[in-house]
Amino acid sequence: MQVLVVEDEQNIALAVDRGLRAEGFGVDIAEDGTKALGLIRHNDYAVIVLDLMLPGRNGYDVCRTLRAAGITTPVLILTAKDGEYDEADALDLGADDYLTKPFSFVVLLARIRALLRRSAPQRSPVLRAGDLWLDPAAHRCGRGDERLELTPREFGLLEFLLRHPDTVVSKTDLLAQVWGAWFEGDPNIVEVYVGYLRRKIDTPFGRSAIETVRGVGYRLDGKGG
Amino acid sequence: MQVLVVEDEQNIALAVDRGLRAEGFGVDIAEDGTKALGLIRHNDYAVIVLDLMLPGRNGYDVCRTLRAAGITTPVLILTAKDGEYDEADALDLGADDYLTKPFSFVVLLARIRALLRRSAPQRSPVLRAGDLWLDPAAHRCGRGDERLELTPREFGLLEFLLRHPDTVVSKTDLLAQVWGAWFEGDPNIVEVYVGYLRRKIDTPFGRSAIETVRGVGYRLDGKGG
DNA sequence: GAAGAAGCTGAGAGCCCGCTGAGAGACGCG
DNA sequence: CGCGTCTCTCAGCGGGCTCTCAGCTTCTTC
To answer: What angle, rounded to 10 degrees, do the helices at B189-201 and B152-163 form?
Structure first.
């Protein structure tokens, strides 16, 4: 877990360095913008802590250059409270969070952790079909306000259907995508699980989101039935 | 590409506004729920970014009202980490994604893009002949607003005819393409099924899309009869 | 106008497809 | 070890789809 600290004030840089190392991070220090960009180009940092007031190339420049180059590493900006840039600017120029000096190390640590948490695997948005919804990341689904308790297999099946709304998906596709291409059992399993699903997401609500297309497969109604 | 940002904190609203404009979005700002609903009623937004903590009508209300009105515009919820609503609630009340404050602009942008990507309807090519239409992917067909219920064989036959409008197709071709080259039964089956089709797509509408070309085959009128 | 060819249609048989209930096996948990 | 849950198999059933067949209508040709 590598962190780059771009800071020209020796005492601050040193304090942050020691503190982060004590917390188990690997730390690189750059005392100006040019060196910072060089390091960023050749290393993969988890977070960049960036002072705005730097000799030569300032933090503003660094941040823009970074983003322009398509680097999306989270950036935490350090601003002097009375500085010429304010918080709004910091976000505007592509930073992910900011901290005004003087700051407490505990707060800095907390912010860094928050950034790391956030840059963790991107959650995909919630899938919807009318009032029927499913959150792949949180592994939850429901109809309107009502939560639905699905088994893993049922969940996988519904997720696949929701990713192909208003399209007929063949049982062969379902078998391959939900059960896996290597599945060797009775293909009838698809019908069985569609049955289970209907009894949870449709029957209790008097709806019919999953339609049977005889001889072809199943279709999930994009409006939820 | 219009985005509505519902946010009462001036500096955040401004930063998001500027950031999104820089990315080429059109941005409207609403500082409370009532104004937001007013704007939504009269504009067609691609995405709505909605803070939950608002003066007056809160984000919770706005989202439910929206959904209750049948508006399906993707909603991205902003929640305070320590707020009274948590992320789980956001999904239940009809949001499509959520982000906890403080959030990074890069992440916000990525999430907005993800929502846009998902809400972009993947158009499947629909076959048409006048008001007669058939969607191969969804396996649906109809005449005008009226849905037609076809059996698989009827559907296959109509699909083939629609792919060769204003062209005479021989019964031999139909047999080979719709029934399969290996078909060994009575070729009369084509006439039988053309009959079935006519009774569903023509007779009830007083039309005649499928014309008989005696001694040659059938022709589907490209204007639907 | 008659005869034959081509196409249409109603009736019905058989069967395929999809649905369901019962239950066995695997697995995890207390 | 007992219990509950989940996954999957299996067999039966019910309905609708496909197809055959025979009789009828329409068109063509002489």
So the answer is: 90
* In a shared domain, residues B144 and B177: yes
Q: What is the mean pLDDT of residues A135-139?
A: 83
Residue B225, domain member (yes or no): no
User: Alpha-carbon distance A7 to A39, whole Å?
Assistant: 14
Q: Is there a single domain that holds both residue A115 and residue A10?
A: yes
- Per-residue pLDDT tens over the stretch B76-127: 988 875 555 555 566 677 788 888 777 777 778 888 988 888 777 666 689 9
Q: Which of B89, B106, B149, B179 to mutate to test the interface with A (most CBs of A within 10 A)?
A: B106
Selecting from A115, A167, A215 the residue whose C-beta is nearest the C-beta of B137 gives A167
pLDDT in tens, B26-36: 999 998 989 99
A198 and A180 within one domain: yes
The residue among B162, B159, B190, B185 whose CA lies nearest residue B174 is B190
Nearest CA in chain B to A89: B15
Residue range(s) defining the domain that contains residue A36: 2-119
The residues of the protein lying within 7 Å (CB) of strand C read: A 171, 188, 191-192, 194-195, 198, 212, 214-217; B 171, 188, 191-192, 194-195, 198-199, 212, 214-217
Which of residues B119, B146, B176 is at a domain's end?
B119
* pLDDT value of position A213: 94
What's the domain count of chain A? Answer: 2
